[in-house]
Amino acid sequence: MIHNNYLVLPYGFSDVGAGIATVPVPDLLARLTGQ
What we know:
single chain, elongated, 26% helix
């Protein structure tokens, strides 16, 4: 999901816990395109 120019990635650890990772979309695109 994208929110306020951040890619939001929920993740979980079986029955132990859960968390959310966020990545700035411009930084991700720059890394993917090699810029």
